[in-house]
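Risk register update: the risk of archive-format incompatibility is retired. Evidence:
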Amino acid sequence: SKQMRAATPQISAWVSANAGSGKTHVLSQRVVRLLLNGTPPSAILCLTYTKAAAAEMSLRIFDILAKWSQMSEEALHEEISKIESAPANSKKIAFARTLFAAALETPGGLKIQTIHAFCESLLHRFPLEANVAGHFQVLDDAAAEDLQTEARSVILNQASKDPVKPVAKAVDTILEQGGEPAL
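Archived output:
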């Protein structure tokens, strides 16, 4: 199936599908297969658009690994054989039982985060290269809205004081083309 192919770690895959179609399942299976094939947890990075998706993927992966650490030999053999589309050997089964602890003990854990969180971590690690202040903080939504409101007030005040200045003409153009919501 297309989902099994997309979950195969040896191939490069682009997964694009509608909500509820199984993307998180496929990507979780891909991570589990990477771990099962010996990829260290610290070498895996999963990026999502939302915090909810990151939490869901993390939960699914850890649920699978936790179950593996407690499953009977027979059930685990069957599950790994199904995931890998090939019979599992005793060495792989024994290794699968260690993955939950390995993922938990990895410094920084499995990296499953939003694109924004990943970019923020890069900026914090390399502030000089990014030309940002070393101890910057990301604005929360309320602070960003306050700054936008303040900036809008400054611009409207400047425009109202001198209607022939470029700022006033820009405000007029914005209002003409997009109305008040455009401001």
